[in-house]
Fold this sequence. Notes:
The strands form 5 sheets. A 6-stranded mixed sheet has the order 8-9-17-15-11-10. A 5-stranded parallel sheet has the order 4-3-5-6-7. The chain starts with 15 loop residues before the first helix and ends in a 13-residue tail after the last helix. With 682 residues, the protein is of the alpha/beta class.
Amino acid sequence: LENSNIDRSQYSLVGESKGTLGRRKKETGSVGLIDVNSELPDYSTAHRSMPSLKEIVRERILQDTIRAVKTTSGWKILVLDHVTLRIISAACRMYDIMEEGVTLVEKIDETGQIKRQPLPQMDAIYILTPTVKSVDALIEDYKNTSKPQYGDVHLFFSSKLPDSLLQRIKGAAVVSRVKTIKEIYLEFLATESSERGNTFLLDPPDPLRFGPSPPDSLRVLFSPDYAGKRDLELEKDRIANQLMSLCATLGEYPLVRYANASTLSRSLATKIQDKLDHAKKSGILQVTSSPQGTLLVVDRSIDPLAPLLHEFTYQAMCYDLLDIQGDKFSYDYVNNAGASTKKDVVIGEQDLLWPSLRYLHIAECIDEVIKSFNDFLKTNKATKLTPSGGGVKDLSEMSSAVRDMPQFRELLSKYSLHIHLAQECMKAFKSRNLEKIASLEQDMATGEDSEGNQVKSIMANVLPVLSDPQINHLDKLRLLLIYVITQEGVKDADRQRLFRAAGLKTDDEQTVMNLSYLAVALSKGAKGMRTALLGKKSKKSKKRNDDVAYDLSRYSPVLKSILEELLKDELSSANFPYAKDPALAAASTSTADAASMRRQPASKSRWAMGRGKAKDETVSGPRVIVFMAGGTTYSETRICHELAASSKREICIGSTHVFTPESYLTSLRGLKQLPGPHADEE
């Protein structure tokens, strides 16, 4: 601190459901990549032979921060801000942290309104984002030198600490207490892991810059309100920095590719490449992964359709049809005494069943829950408690059996949760007439009916559904948006006719018109992103119908075909060019890798060892990282995990957030207030 300098080197971085959800296309068909006649794949990490992104992040947090701090007593306090709390909570359990001698985890007060109990006899580890608010809160903890909040201070920042904030720390009383100060470059959340597949999220737009209710990333990146303004460039810089921290964590200096038809993807890729080059040159990014992977940068405009379609895989269906807030769900259930009780649960990877169920079609999911429960009954010799004495046959019998075994209450509560979720999904499917709606959606999205015949008179099929008073208002709006996108432009008279039939309000019409900002053609003759990027591929071929198992699941997100081509090394370099000449990038990586090998100490953390160093034969090619700017969907994260499993390639998919259909509609509505100009009507 006396030298106004931080060592910038990367220290340690150094049943019923099947009949109503659309008939099976073929008895020997598959759901995505799942063979119906084979055993269902396990998307949990139980049999994973290589560390997941979540495990790598957990090891970094424990090894490079908590274990790195040695105190006289052996005990420590961990202090986090609102961002680092989310990062660490996504990767670590409280048990993991407490095992390292942490006696208390506290959230720093960035508002100046919450008081914590002073513990001056205890040393503290602060893991903070390098922002004015967090640094000021740190300084406030030690403002009173006679009554400091804690003892000695060990500071870890999630990214580069600006010199202005370093000077602020130097000029405060806390400087006398600082024993450690490091930058760890960890600015993303590792949210989901399966065998070879990972999902990550970047932190959303900064509320300190945009206020207490910041716009989501889709609005900042696509709304004309931000076009050409500083906030847009700051948002792109923020995304590029966080993706650099992901690559640094993985020891990956990837080839950066982008969707050429999108100016946003192009500008983002350029920024990301610049950040990666600087990080590698400065030693922040030490290349430990071989062979060189690919970072594919795309944005929401490549497929504005995917967030609107009804998806009938378990995770997507739950988040679409049920009231799940974040990862929390509340429901009423009948306890053993016959009383109705409200229960709050967290849905996530800590759940016993969720990781192996979330990507399955709801029909397979129900079968798997029942099969798993029957296996439990056999193991515990409890089959005599079921009506047939030989296991349960459906969700109703399963629900009764759970209530009859109070001695297994904690374990069975997991089964009870998934019984309830599956039942509620099926209730919503029936009450909202989703079979009829989804069939029409699939016809429009693929351009074919379930028999592979070209769909004609789509307007005639859509109007009765939009006019039906029994159809949910949001489902009508989704259907209308799907019509506009898939028809690649609608005559003004037809558009007004559809609006009247659906009984849309002014803000609903605004939502439809705002599709233009995602490069959707609103008027006939205008060219949208789907045509520019995909050409004839925007219309699905008959071959697609033979590859799926359910009539209501015929459409695959555009990202799937792009990734399939990338994995086969057949992705067009014209449509998806490189941000940097691949020959130069490969040469640069080889040189950096050799240098890294020479300077790497023998005690290098295990998380930093790449797949090439471990010679993990279960991975058949270089890593692929996909970033979807503006928000991704559960269907897109699913297909990445499925492709990772089938190709034996590690695939990481990430964005700033995951859309539900309802949140996507809200974001679309916020892009621009009517009246206003639209791209294809000017």
